[in-house]
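Section 3.1: Structural characterization of target chains.
Under the original work plan, the team committed to producing a structural model for every single-chain target entering the pipeline before any wet-lab resources were allocated. The record below documents one such target. The sequence was received from the expression subgroup and is listed exactly as submitted; it comprises 491 residues.
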Amino acid sequence: MNLMKKKLIIGIRYRLFFAFLAAACCVVVSMFILTRVMFERGVFRYVNLVEKERLETLARTLEQAYSEKKQWTFLGDASTSWPELLESSIPKHAYHRKNRHQPEEPNAEHDSSRQWDRPPPPPPLPSGEQIFELRVLLLDARRKVLYGPEKPWAKPPFFLPLTADHQTIGYLGLIPPRTLIDERVRQFVREQNQSLIVIALSIAAGAALLSIPLATKLVRRITTLAAATTQLASGCYDIRVPAETTDELGQLARDFNRLAQTLDKNEQLRRRWVADISHELRTPLSVLRGEVEAVQDGVRQLTPKTMDSLHDEILHLSRLVDDLYELSLADIGALTYHKENLDLRTLVGQAVQSYQDEFSSHSLTLEYEAPARPLILFGDAERLRQLMSNLFQNALRYTDPGGKLRIDCTEGAENLRLRLADSAPGVPEEALAHLFERLYRVEDSRNRAHGGAGLGLALCKSIVEAHGGAINAAPSSLGGLEITITLPKNG
């Protein structure tokens, strides 16, 4: 198990690491490609700008010379030959002049002894100016090629019109290069690309170094939650995990702690429930057993009084089992409800009438002032009768003789409210929130001596909630307990 968990942890760590690294590499590669493309386009624009400036200089020179000679034959003269004009068009800020890149002649006096030992130098590569000269075109006014390459051209040339005395005398054109031609420019571009590669690799390495601690930190928090979940699944409900951050993992940790706290509380309630149920079932069974054994041993005679005592214990046990059965049905959602439109005023009036004599026999007063008009709601009449019966039984059991139970019904915009308030004794403030818990009873005035099992109010809560309502307990103005039930009209 530990080996499998270790493999899983390593897998998560490396998956996170590679995810972070892949994202960083995608960004770096995108930036590298975009920067390289933009840089090369910028170099192309610069080279084209330099060549167009040189072409414009050459055009002005040709226009001036043509204005003096009035024809193109002057290009054959030695002082104004086509090659000389091309060389004179080189900008002053160019990186070198044509006459500067010529290799110096070796000194024969000093190198005669080594001229046979040294291999001949390779032929020099054509410079950017030389290749520029090979791409320049001169056309006359009828677009006949005077100088430069003949058609077809590799790419459509860029032409500048030549004018003299406000007349077009020809066209000077330049064939665009397919790629960067000058070796020095290409070398500069290569160096810049190498620098971009080094920068990209450095950024990727930095991202990898940052991804390792970040992935480790995230995995550490995940493994902490995984280990705590394993302990929680094994029944250790007091486990808690630190929730120090406000991100999703921090929220998950807080939710885990709430889950563990809820499971811990439910486990405690389950244990108390089992203990209380055992005690409640054991009490009437012990009484029955003692009575029966006393009759069997001849200690007591089987008289009608003895039979009545046994019958009372059996009824007590039967009521307890019935309440447990109905609560269990409510828990699993199997407690059936047959809802229909009914009058709550009539139901309460019928319950009051059926319990009037019993309240009188206990020296209790039952007060109920029926509303002036029907209170219609959508509910189960039988379950609502059971609700009121449990509440009346609770008042009979825990109200001192000479007291009273006051009942009133009111109608709201969307809800109906039923309120039952009895007289002393009251319920301590701290016990009010627990009255509707199963098997809970106040251990002073409302104790087991009154015969309750602590399931009636729990069943009342289940019935009210099944109707979409709410039930609450509060101190009564009569000195006892006030129970308020709110039921929606639409059920």
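The CA atoms of residues 5 and 227 lie 9 Å apart.
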